[in-house]
Design brief:
By secondary structure, the protein is mainly α. It has 18 helices and 2 strands. The protein has helices spanning about 15-30, 35-45, 50-70, 75-90, 90-120, 135-155, 175-205, 220-235, 245-265, 275-295, 305-310, 320-340, 340-345, 350-355, 360-385, 390-400, 405-430, 440-455, and strands spanning about 265, 270. Helix 3 runs antiparallel to helix 4 (about 75-90), helix 8 (about 220-235) crosses helix 15 and helix 9 (about 245-265) packs antiparallel against helix 10. About 35% of the residues are buried.
Length: about 450
């Protein structure tokens, strides 16, 4: 037999299941009377007399339900019937204590509800709420820089006709011309990204927006390390036919130059922006003189290649293993920069304020110090000392996306790659009758005026 029996006769509705079944039966027998049937069943259930204490429990529960804003009928199975069952089984003392607790709870809920209704709502400004998602402006800027990088790469692939004189699109896909141009595009992306990210890291490390690998002497120091290693190999073997400078030589030179600049650019334990720039320029000049001296000691056949490399140019004889290693280093620098973005944001404050918010200043300086030197060394090995990329790209991206280093690192990497690839495509088109122009000349023509403009805006760095 079903639990909801339809047998005729008197009913004793002593449970929620009984009055629900009665309401369901009445609503099914009378069309359109579902809600009325449920209300009638509820009234019959309330009107059934079992004992005075059960009726009293029902009244107390009804009061607490009205005070807390709950409906008696909707939540009866979970609240009211539990009270009735406890009233049947509990002792008089425990029932009195339970009813007193329920009265206190009902009054407290009523007071809180009235206060909540009378309290005006306060609108929190949207700018106070920190969003975990990337702002739309930053996302659009990064997408635009990505498209710019792809456009510069496509322009470099078709910038000039091949040496055979035939159209570039008429060549097969596996031709040497396509391979050479593709390698140059990859080298440009790696070099530009490494220099731009190195500039961002140095500006965060030194709290100086004028910091840049070429201005602080890192590029010249890395170049000096490379030339010294070439000279030592020439003294040891007497030949430079198959020698390729190791990455460690450039890294030692870059880190040594940065250590000197960092030590001499301080006054009473604080970094002075003007002294830092002056010391960097002096270190760069000294390292340049050292490169010229050791190149003078090399044989005459290496002069032309070394001079072109010193002015900053992409070499065509870069091996795939070296390109892969330095490309992996550049990618690691971007990932570490993104990971340390919030810490670099805190490091732009005073040292005491940065420590108060929990920024690990000591470990952060050591990491940025080593990473900036490694990125500069890798870029110098591939294309020589190219200046002002780490100055122009971070400031241009900062004007678009703001000071957040997490977005700034990615945007600067894309902008640096687009700048170097575009400059390489431009020098393929410009023909002055004296050979291919070095990339460092174009970047200096763009970065020099930008550096003077930033230097005159003292409110940005003083």
């Amino acid at each position: 037999m079903s639990s909801c029996s339809t047998a005729t006769g008197p009913r004793l509705l002593t449970s929620p299941r009984a009055w629900r079944c009665d309401a369901r039966r009445r609503s099914s027998s009378t069309p359109g009377a579902g809600r009325r049937g449920r209300r009638r069943g509820l009234r019959r259930f309330r009107g059934s007399r079992d004992s005075p204490r059960i009726s009293r429990a029902r009244r107390i529960t009804s009061r607490s339900s009205r005070a807390s804003g709950r409906s008696v009928g909707s939540g009866w199975a979970s609240s009211a019937w539990a009270t009735i069952r406890s009233a049947r089984t509990e002792s008089p003392e425990s029932r009195a204590a339970s009813l007193q607790a329920r009265r206190s709870q009902a009054s407290l809920v009523s007071i809180c509800g009235s206060l909540a209704r009378r309290t005006p709502r306060v609108a929190i400004p949207r700018r106070w709420v920190r969003s975990t998602s990337m702002p739309r402006r930053s996302l659009i800027t990064l997408l635009g820089l990505t498209l710019l990088l792809l456009a510069m790469a496509a322009l470099r692939m078709v910038a000039a006709p091949p040496t055979s004189g035939a159209p570039i699109f008429a060549l097969p896909a596996d031709s040497v011309e396509w391979e050479i141009r593709g390698v140059r595009v990859l080298i440009g992306v790696v070099v530009g990204s490494a220099l731009a990210v190195s500039g961002v890291l140095l500006q965060a490390l030194l709290r100086n927006p004028l910091a840049e690998p070429a201005i602080l002497g890192l590029s010249a120091g890395a170049g000096l390390g490379v030339v010294v290693s070439i000279w030592l190999m020439y003294l040891a073997t007497g030949s430079l036919a198959t020698y390729s400078p190791p990455v460690i030589s450039a890294m030692i030179g870059a880190l040594g130059a940065l250590a000197i600049v960092y030590a001499l650019g301080q006054k009473r334990g604080l970094i002075d922006p003007v002294s830092l720039i002056l010391v960097g320029v002096v270190v760069s000049v000294i390292c340049g003189a050292g490169m010229a001296f050791f190149q003078h000691l090399l044989p005459a056949q290496g002069w032309a290649v070394s001079l072109q490399w010193m002015m900053g140019s992409i070499r065509d004889d870069v091996s795939w293993s070296r390109l892969t290693a330095i490309g992996s280093l550049a990618l690691l620098g971007v990932l570490v920069g993104v990971r340390l973005g919030p810490a670099m944001d805190a490091a732009t404050l005073d040292e005491d304020e940065a420590r108060s918010v929990g920024a690990p200043i000591g470990a952060l300086r050591l990491t940025l110090f080593a990473l900036a030197g490694a990125l500069t060394a890798g870029s110098v090995l591939l294309a020589g000392p190219i200046g002002f990329v780490g100055l122009v790209c971070p400031h241009a991206v900062r004007l678009l996306v703001g000071p957040s280093h997490r977005v700034l690192v990615v945007g600067s990497a894309l902008a640096g790659g687009a700048l170097i690839v575009g400059a390489d495509a431009l020098i393929r088109v410009i023909d002055l009758g004296a050979g291919r122009m070095p990339i460092g000349v174009l970047t200096a023509l763009v970065g020099g005026p930008a550096f003077i403009w930033l230097l005159r805006r003292k409110e940005t760095w003083s």
